[in-house]
Structures are given as structure tokens and as C-alpha cells.
Amino acid sequence: MAVYTEVSDADLAAFLEHYNLGRVRALKGIAEGVENSNFVLSTETGVYILTLYEKRVEEGSLPFFLSLLDHLAARGLNCPQPVRMRSDGALGRLAGRPAAIVTFLEGVCRNRPSIADCARLGAALAQLHLAAADFKGSRANALNLEAWPKLFAPIAFRADEVKAGLAATISAELKFLQANWPRDLPRGIIHADLFPDNVLFLGDEISGVIDFYFACVDDLSYDLAICLNAWCFEPGGAFNIDKGAAMFGAYASLRPLSAAEAKAIPTLARGAALRFALTRLVDWFNVPPGALVNPKNPLEYFAKLQMLQTIGDARELGVLI
Amino acid sequence: MAVYTEVSDADLAAFLEHYNLGRVRALKGIAEGVENSNFVLSTETGVYILTLYEKRVEEGSLPFFLSLLDHLAARGLNCPQPVRMRSDGALGRLAGRPAAIVTFLEGVCRNRPSIADCARLGAALAQLHLAAADFKGSRANALNLEAWPKLFAPIAFRADEVKAGLAATISAELKFLQANWPRDLPRGIIHADLFPDNVLFLGDEISGVIDFYFACVDDLSYDLAICLNAWCFEPGGAFNIDKGAAMFGAYASLRPLSAAEAKAIPTLARGAALRFALTRLVDWFNVPPGALVNPKNPLEYFAKLQMLQTIGDARELGVLI
């Protein structure tokens, strides 16, 4: 949750003069998104989300994110759509930060996704990959295989504070992944952070996918691996193969996996588990003062990694081969 | 800002079955209120605020707060109005906490109130006092003169960590206030926390007064003293007598102050300054882990107290005598 920057009523009124949204009717800082400050903004024309981009988001990537949302929305995907300024731009400045207004999506995220929800998620992910296939923009994954050792190095000496033996576990896993990472898989735009709190449901249908600020070009099947870890484990930590099978099955019905992709899932899932374990570990040691953020427990993802290390065959994760 | 308790989609759906509000369309935790968890709740019938009452609010006082809001709304005051359950009650339970739904008020709070805003605030406060005059409920002020020494005692030994000499300043002020606190002033329901972030404006008019969870029976003029401190000092710390005069003038045009009330304002303002300085100091030393709260700087209110200690006559604060 996050509101890092306060917005004054005077600054907001001045900012809105760049838009055709009428005057402000309400503004509430919301507990959504970890990297940016987000507000529900109500104006004379409707309800929107106002985002102020904080330092952790590279400003150079903002046009990529915003034009990706435009592209996906134009293809009928339920994602936030950037609202144009009178100047036709989508990116302004407010309270000293880059800022944008996007449409508000109805829906509530699922705290405990069901097997059917995992199927819906799989289909939505395939739709996202297909809708983005002809998107011209490009952004490298700043949190890929090459980045993980660099994330780990500055905190390696403290990792065992969180759990004895953690530093050795991470070093060994990094070596395994460097040696075994799959090459030449189909690439494209991935969401890269499609956790349950970024998927909105209305009744039994997915009404929206949000928070594209990790989107990048990478292996499409790596996005599935991220979702496998985020959606298909039970709260107690057990993997649920029915959820995996539902997700992979629904995805593959729209975008079939190649044999190489299917085979690579266990390794990709180990990488995805390590990636979130590492960034959570970094956050754990680096909660900025006054950030109003509860760092997520990194051990959840180390436990998932430990389970994934026991998997010999993608079918054990629900992949249909 | 605060969201202490997460609400699952399943628990929320079950909770809404007690209401005639239709199904949920969106739920966003918001950065509003320090004591409770607040959400903007959108349903098929409209937009509301959902509040989960956390431990710091005495559960026994919740019926008082909710019936006060009913009373004020019935008299035309723009305040949140509790939404009735099918059972006619206004107080339910959600995620293990007492919980209520109230109407959503449009408007944006003023970060830097103008002189005219201070006049509007004065009039709104008088309207609140008058509208509450025939309210039957009663609640003692848990943070009154008698409570301040008890707030201070457990943190007295640490006060000088915040500023050298602070403990002695507080002790001397407590003695002064015990000896000089005005008696027999007109009493009634006071808001007791009417800071700028609890007053919503649409354009140049006040569109709503919110957050009644400190409301109680006390000296009506003490409510004015709280507002004087919260509204009539500039960001740099200087007192603005024009703002004081605007506030007192607009208030008195609806509810004239007695001579005793007018004369008491400087002492009441010292008490009000000490009350907020003390609770901020307590919070400063007691930020609960994971509370997602930025404690407010207690020194702001000690600086106001210091200025108020130099005031010999209520007219120096803008009171018309």
C-alpha cells in the first residue's frame, strides 16, 4: 500500500486544467501499488485513478507503460486506459512527480482464488500476450536472470539474519539457474507481476487487469511461471496441482505452449520464485523511513522455491504435455 | 493514513448481505483516518465509506458516534450518514471488527485554508454545535484536562529525547492549566478533532464534515480553541490573526460567545495545544509495528503552545469582545 506524496487541492486543480475532466469532486489516497502513490479521483466526468510515479520507477519507461495500456485497451483488454490531456499527452507532472490519470476499473481482487479463478487467470494471461503481440514498444526486463546476482550481492552478508542458511541456498540456486536457464523460448510483452491483487473480478468474471509497471519483453512462459507461483499455492504453502492444471489448460486453449516452453516451466518457476524472494529480501532490509509500506515476507517465496526444487517434470506442476 | 485490517472478497460479500446495497463493484483501502481502517466501497446502489473500527476506538462508544451522525444528518448537516442494515442496525461485524457503512461525501480538504475558508469553518462549527444541541446521547471527553497528566506520566522520562527541556515545559503547563482552567462554560456536543483534513470543500463551499470519532460532550468554546490551533496558524508556524478573527466572527454570528467564553479562549487554546502535543508525543513513542502510519511531529503543537503562552488577551487571537 502506498501514498508517498501528498497532493494539495490547489496543485490538483491546476493539474486538472490540462484535462477535459471538469472539476475535482473527491480525491482519496489509496492503499494500492507498492512503487507509486495512487488516488481515486472523482471529477465532474467520472471516476479515475491518479498515479504519481515515485523514484523507483524509471521515468524513461513511463511512455512505454502508458502506450502499452493504450494498445491493450484498443484491443478490448480490460486494463486501465490513460486519459489524454488537452495537449494529447498522457504524462504530466504533479507535486514534483511525473503523473498520469487512467480510467477506474470496477471489481474486487480475490484473496483466495479458486480452481475456476485460476482457469480464468490463465485465459486472461493468454489474451494479454496475444493482444500485445503486435505492440511496437520494447522494454528490457530489469529484474531478469542477469539482474538477480546484482540484487543479491549487497544483501548477501545479511540474508542469514532472516533464516539460517539462506545465503548459501540463494548462491546455489543462482548457479543452477545460470547453468540451466532455458534459451530461445517465444518472447513478447509480459505483465511480470500478475499477482491476485492485480486482477479484479466482478462476480465470476475477470473485470480488469491492473498495475503494468513491471511489464517488459521476456519469455512469455516466464509470465506463466510467475502466475503459477502467485496463484496455485494454498495459503498454508502447499502446491495445488488442480489450480496449475486449470491455469495452464485455459492458457494453452488460447495460446498453445511449445514443447520447449512446457518443459521449461519448472526451471522458469524456480527463477520466478527466486526473483520475488530476492526483491522481497531487498525490501525487507530497505524499508524507507515514512514509506507507509509493510514489507512482504520473503520467506514465503523461499518456501515455494524449496518445493519447486523437488520438481523433476513439468507435469507435476499441472502442465499438459 | 490507515488500513490495519484486510477485507477478503468473500467476507465482504457476506457482510453486504445484511444491507440493501446490491453487490460490490469496487473496494479500495484509503489513506484516511488514523484510528480505523477505511475503504471506498462501490456497490450497485452507489458509493460509500466502509469503516472497520480498530482496537483504539472503544466499542461502547460506537452507537453514540453513529446515532450522532444520524441526528446531525437529519438536521441537514453534511456529515456521513450511517447506512441501515436490513435489521435496521447500523453496526455490524466484518473481519473480526465492528464495522459500519456510511454515505460518501464529495469534496477535497484544503491543505492551506484561506481567511475566507476559516470564516466558513467557523460558521460550520457553529451549525454543528446548534444542530447537536438537542441530541440526547452523551459521551465524556476521554482526552480532557484530567486525562492529560495520565497521558504524560508514562512518557515523561522520554520527552526530552524529542527536545531538551520538553518534560519541564509540559509539567509547568499542566500545573498552569489545572490552576486556570475555566469552569461553568456552556457545554454541548463538540467534534473535538475538526482539523482541515476533516473538512471537505467543493469549490468555495464546505461540502462535508467527517471523522466524528472524538466527538464528546465538553465546553463548546474548547472546540473553537482546537480549530484556532488547527486552522489559524501558517505553515511556517506564525499565528494569523485575520484567520482567527474570520473564524470567531463567523461562528459568533450564528452562536454568539458569552463574555466568559471569549475571555477563556487563550487558556482553552493552550489546553488544546497541549492535548494534541501530548497525544502526538505518545504516538511518537508508540508507533505499532506494521501500522502503516506516519506519526505526526509533536513539536508543531509545542511551538503553538509556546506562542499561546505569550497571549494575555483573547483579542490578540482575533476574538471579538
- CATH architecture identity of the largest domain in chain A: Alpha-Beta Complex
Structural class of chain A: alpha+beta
Helix content of chain A: 25-40%
- Subunit organisation of the chains: homodimer
Q: Estimate the strand proportion of chain A.
A: 15-25%
Q: How many distinct folded domains of chain A?
A: 2
The number of E-state strands of chain A comes to 10
Shape of chain A: globular
Q: Which chain pair shows the most residues in contact?
A: A-B, 36 and 36 residues
Question: CATH homologous superfamily of the largest domain in chain A?
Answer: Aminoglycoside phosphotransferase (APH), C-terminal lobe
The helix tally of chain A amounts to 10
Question: Terminal Cα separation of chain A, in Å?
Answer: 39 Å
Strand order of the largest sheet of chain A: 1-2-3-5-4
The biggest sheet of chain A amounts to: 5 strands, antiparallel
Structure report:
The structure is a homodimer of 321-residue chains. By secondary structure, chain A is an alpha+beta fold. Chain A folds into 2 domains: 9-103, Phosphorylase Kinase, domain 1; 109-317, Alpha-Beta Complex (Aminoglycoside 3'-phosphotransferase, Chain: A, domain 2), CATH 3.90.1200.10. Chain A is 39% helix and 16% strand. The first copy, chain A, has 10 helices and 10 strands. Chain A has helices at residues 9-16, 62-74, 115-131, 148-152, 159-162, 166-180, 220-231, 241-254, 259-285, 299-308; strands at 24-30, 37-43, 46-52, 92-94, 97-103, 108-109, 187-190, 199-202, 205-209, 216-219. In chain A, strands 1-2-3-5-4 form a 5-stranded antiparallel beta sheet, covered by helices on one side. In chain A, strand 2 (37-43) and strand 3 (46-52) form a beta hairpin. The mean pLDDT of chain A is 94. Chains A and B meet through helix 1, strand 1, strand 6 and strand 8 of A and helix 1, strand 1, strand 6 and strand 8 of B. Chains A, B: InterPro entries: Aminoglycoside_PTrfase, Homoserine_kinase_II, Kinase-like_dom_sf, Pseudomonas-type_ThrB. Chains A, B: Pathway: Amino-acid biosynthesis; L-threonine biosynthesis; L-threonine from L-aspartate: step 4/5. Chains A, B: Its EC number is 2.7.1.39. Chains A, B: GO terms for molecular function: ATP binding; homoserine kinase activity. Chains A, B: Keywords: Amino-acid biosynthesis, ATP-binding, Kinase, Nucleotide-binding, Threonine biosynthesis, Transferase.
